[in-house]
Every structure is written in structure tokens, then in C-alpha cells.
């Protein structure tokens, strides 16, 4: 199976509309190259452009959905289209990922569960998702997470319990914490004995330099491919069957102890 992670540079001078057109073209370029294409988080606005979220928010089936569905169909690829600022029918905002099949049908939508910012930014502007999302491909089952989710291992355990074998993580990760990005991607791969495809952004979002360095990690924690800091298409071939082989040869997941309680005082 071949995957292409498109590490987009968000130029703050571009409109969301012009960026959609450029990204759709990049997706179409993957026709015959990749089976799965992954885009980063909030590439229509920039992950740290908080003041743009409300202005650029769109319904689930809005212009980004339309453009990416057509791009997936034109390229004949599975497309994780990164995430958009979604405006729900009740007016609430969410950081929502979209996944499309090679026919252009929406296969899944995932509202980010862990919102970054503590008491500002995304954490107060956007609602929290509640549902774990997996997507069955012919070769593997994707588990879908977004950026800050990477810091919460229990979410990924839930995805594995739901059948995930390949964990896909679009992000707008800042350069100042790039070491954590690499470390956590490898940790999530090792502890869940799964592939991790983590796609970041390049450039600067609202004055925040982005880490880039999209990365693909195998179930043993080996880095199969890693991008540099700038805009880049990172393409890697991987064998989804290695997940089952790894879990069989080193069956650590069978030794999980669930439901542990703190000591009584």
C-alpha cells in the first residue's frame, strides 16, 4: 500500500478558496502514485489562526467537502482531507476531519476530541467531539485522530479496540514542540503495534512557525519516512499485514490490564 502525506505550507496571503484549488490539484497529482492521501489539520485557515475560525467555518458538506470529494474521485484515492472549521446546524464550531473514498463519497467525519489551548484559542472557540472514528479500507482499518489528540494514549487504545491498524493524525504542530511530535508518533505506534501516519503543516500560522516533519512509523516504532520543514509530498510504501504479524509475534496487547482503580484511602 502506498500513502502520500501532503505537508502543505499555509501562506497567510492566500484565501481559503485559492488554497482549496491548489490543494485539490496536489491531490489529483497523486493519481496512480498513492492509494491513500493525507492532508494536515485546518489547512484552509491555519491551525493557530483563531480569529479566522468563525469567519471561515463551513457546513460539513460545504466548499472544502465539495472540492476534496471531487479531488479524491478524480485521483481515484482514499483521501483523509485533513480538518476544517465546521459550523454545525446549531451554530457550534468543531475541528472536523473528513475522509473520502476513491469514488468521492464521504466515508467518515471526525470531530476532534481534545482541543488545544487550555483556556484560550481552539479550546474555547470549538466544541469537543465525542465519538471515536475508524474507516475500513480494503487493505487496512484507519483510526482517525487530530493533532493534540496525539498526547492522549487512551484515545488510541480505544481506536485499536475498535479495529484500527493504521493511525492517521493530521496536525498543525508548532516547531517549538517538534521533538514531542516525533516522540509521540513513535510512542503511539509502539504501544498500539500499529502504523502511524502523521501529517503536519509547513510555514507559519498566525505568527506560529510550524514543525513540518510529517512522519510515517511502523508497528515496531521504526521511522519509515520523514519530511523536512517545508512544503513537501512524502510518499511511502508500507505493508499493512505487518500489524497482524507484529501483534502475533509480540502479543503485548493481550497483556493489558483494564479497569485499574486507585488505592482506597
UniProtKB/TrEMBL annotation:
Keywords: Hydrolase. InterPro entries: C-N_Hydrolase, C-N_Hydrolase_sf, UPF0012_CS. The keyword Hydrolase applies. Residues 1-240 form the CN hydrolase domain. GO terms for molecular function: hydrolase activity. PANTHER family: DEAMINATED GLUTATHIONE AMIDASE (PTHR23088:SF27), NITRILASE-RELATED (PTHR23088). Belongs to the carbon-nitrogen hydrolase superfamily. NIT1/NIT2 family. This is Carbon-nitrogen family hydrolase.
